[in-house]
Structure formats: C-alpha cells, structure tokens
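ok trying this again, last paste got cut off
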Amino acid sequence: MILAERLRAALAEGHSRADRVPLSDIRDPRIDSDIALAPAAVLVAITDRPEPGLILTMRADTLRKHAGQIAFPGGRVDPGDADEIAGALREAQEEIGLPPHVADIIGVTDRYHTFTGFDIVPVLAVIPPDLPLRAQEAEVADWFELPLAFALDPANRVRQEIEFAGATRHFYEIMWQGRRIWGITAAILANLSRRLGHDRSAA
C-alpha cells in the first residue's frame, strides 16, 4: 500500500482499540476548571518518500511565547476557518508556504490540552517530498525534516520533569542532530506513536 493508505489503516485501527492514549500530564489548573480552552490545530505533515519524514519548524527568537522552540506548523483556529483541518492548513501555508491543495489529509488524532490553555487538534497529512517550502521570518526561523521512524521510536523519547506552579510536571524530550524537540511537540509525537502502534506501553 502507498504511504497514505498505510497511515489511514493504522490510524483507523488505533482509534478502534478500546484503550485510550493518555494525554501528557503537563497541565495547569485551568485545564480542570470551567475556563474554556482556545481551539488550535497543528499540521503533522509527513513526506511521501521511501523513508518518510516529518516537517517541523523552529519558531523565531523574536516571538513573545515559545521563542526558538521546535513545533509543528499550526496555531489558533480562527473564526473564519471551516474546522481544525482548515486552520492547520492555513497556518502551514502562512508559516512555511505549504500549499493546502498538496496535502492528502489522513485524519485527526488525539487532542492535546496544553498548560497554556489551548485545545490542540493534530491533523495528519501526507505531502509530496522536496517541496520548495519557505520559512515566514516573522514567525518561523527555519524548518527541517525529521525522519518519521526516528520521531515515532519510543527508544528516542526521554521522560523528563520540571517544577511548575508548585508541582512536579513531566514532559517528553527527543534529541536529533543537536535539535531539542520537547514539550507539546514531543507529547503529540508520543501520542501519535502509540496511536499508530509503534508504542504499546499504553495499551
């Protein structure tokens, strides 16, 4: 089967299992309160090549929040977006010039509630390899392609902890070629790894 078909089958199988993948426990008290979380979406863009890759960005150092961190293309879902998929595609076009029409949408996977008050929907898509992507300098300093197999391998994921808001919080960290992928991005990858059957530790 081609990559998109294999991913659709794996995602459908993952969602049909009775077990649910737990969200990361990095959260602040707002998540368990009556305060509504803001809708957001990210594009998990996988390149259709013999050894698939995953498109990630490095946020600009000038940003007020999460400056310099590695992230998926994406952001807040705007009122004008039809849904989370439309929001993720719009953000990817704005941030790295990815044309929405080239993305073969596989589906959405586990929502992720962030400690900054967002309800993030990861949108899984397959895109052609070697697109002439360009970082939008105001938001994105650079982009790169991480091997998908490396990203989903539990052996490459380390569980760390920090003190936050008076409590110990845990997060995942993935190191690749000197790049530190951690927090929300690594947690979404951990959930995706389990959902696609790469990591049975949560089964």
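PB: full thing came through this time. The longest strand covers residues 38-47.
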